[in-house]
């Protein structure tokens, strides 16, 4: 026993980034990346006061009831649908996420997926690696243009705005739908027009989803919404699995209801709907939109800062910089 509070990290993290924790905590870090079943999660949390967790770790009332020593949870992600924030607050447990540090990197990747799907980059590479490039047809591998088209953004928070900003160089028309409208000067800055969801679905050539996952957003894009999109449209999901009905999307892609999709997130990830795996007009990516070297380190560093601050240490002592439930530490 070190006498220091026990801290659990649910996945391997950059050793130099977590180093400052060792001075104040007895650190227990998982050596492997894996999804822990609830029982294993609860046993890992025995005697733990602080935890750094990720999307696969669901911290809800049941888990909290069995983890009475827990005081603070730092989530490695801006989205925190794996945390039941009400239950955490009721149990007096503080929680933080990692907003802002990943906006630009995720926006880069949204464009990578959009361009990749529009120009069929990964399907073409598979064809080449397969040894099929023995001659080239002038009218083969025709993709869709991104420049000059209409880009739709569903969810215009900080990441949506970073995506919109990149559209200026591509001379795309940007339309968006969001719970609340941007200020007129911000709309002008991105040359973005606010439209209702139906117009967004009908007019977008490329539609990027950047919504948080809430019960109301579950299957925000299902069969009915896909049917309203253009036959040439491409859907890009970098938000959360479950916002799209993956089975309905696979069917729409197979039937040609829309032309293509690019998905970084999936309803049952890491499992992917088998029908999607059969299709060539969908680009599949293993939830890595924020995975640049600098950004993943920045996310880990922010989680570390929050934990240190929650326990009265570091530059933000007593004021975790991205606390989600401020009432708890007041
Ligand atoms: C994940 C994300 O956090 O920030 C989010 O909400 O989905 C990602 O950045 C990342 O996959 C680490 O789990």
From TrEMBL:
PANTHER family: 2-HYDROXYACID DEHYDROGENASE-RELATED (PTHR10996), GLYOXYLATE_HYDROXYPYRUVATE REDUCTASE B (PTHR10996:SF283). It holds the Pfam family 2-Hacid_dh. InterPro entries: D-isomer_2-hydroxyacid_DH (IPR050223), D-isomer_2_OHA_DH_cat_dom (IPR006139), D-isomer_DH_CS (IPR029753), D-isomer_DH_CS1 (IPR029752), D-isomer_DH_NAD-bd (IPR006140), NAD(P)-bd_dom_sf (IPR036291). The keyword Oxidoreductase applies. This is Gluconate 2-dehydrogenase. Keywords: NAD, Oxidoreductase. It comes from Luteibacter rhizovicinus. The keyword Cell cycle does not apply. One of its GO terms (cellular component) is cytosol. Residues 112-289 form the D-isomer specific 2-hydroxyacid dehydrogenase NAD-binding domain. GO terms for molecular function: glyoxylate reductase (NADPH) activity; hydroxypyruvate reductase [NAD(P)H] activity; NAD binding.
């Amino acid at each position: 026993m070190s006498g220091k509070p026990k801290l659990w990290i649910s996945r391997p993290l950059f050793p130099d980034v977590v180093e400052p924790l060792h001075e104040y905590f007895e650190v227990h870090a998982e050596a492997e990346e894996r999804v822990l079943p609830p029982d294993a999660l609860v046993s890992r949390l025995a005697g733990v006061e602080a935890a750094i967790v990720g999307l696969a770790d669901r911290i809800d009332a049941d888990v909290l009831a069995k983890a009475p020593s827990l005081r603070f949870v730092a989530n490695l992600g801006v989205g925190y649908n794996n945390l039941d924030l009400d239950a955490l607050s009721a149990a007096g447990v503080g929680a933080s996420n990692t907003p802002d540090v990943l906006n630009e990197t995720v926006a880069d990747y949204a464009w990578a997926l959009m361009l990749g799907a529009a120009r069929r980059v990964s399907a073409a590479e598979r064809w080449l690696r397969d040894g099929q490039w023995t001659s080239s047809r002038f009218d083969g591998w025709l993709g869709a243009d991104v420049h000059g088209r209409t880009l739709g953004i569903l969810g215009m928070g900080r990441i949506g705005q970073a995506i919109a900003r990149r559209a200026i160089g591509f001379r795309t028309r940007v339309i968006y739908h969001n719970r609340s409208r941007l200020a007129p000067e911000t709309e002008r800055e991105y040359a973005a027009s606010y439209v209702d969801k139906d117009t967004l679905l009908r007019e977008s050539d490329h539609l990027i989803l950047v919504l948080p996952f809430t019960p109301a957003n579950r299957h925000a894009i299902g069969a009915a919404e896909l049917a309203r999109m253009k036959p040439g449209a491409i859907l890009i999901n970098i938000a959360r699995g479950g916002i799209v009905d993956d089975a309905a999307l696979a069917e729409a892609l197979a039937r040609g209801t829309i032309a293509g999709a690019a998905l970084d997130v999936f309803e049952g990830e890491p499992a992917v709907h088998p029908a999607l795996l059969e299709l060539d007009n969908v680009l599949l990516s293993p939830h890595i939109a924020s995975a640049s070297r600098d950004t993943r380190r920045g996310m880990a560093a922010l989680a570390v800062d929050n934990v240190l601050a929650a326990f009265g240490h570091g530059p933000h002592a007593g004021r975790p910089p991205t606390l989600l439930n401020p009432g708890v530490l007041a």
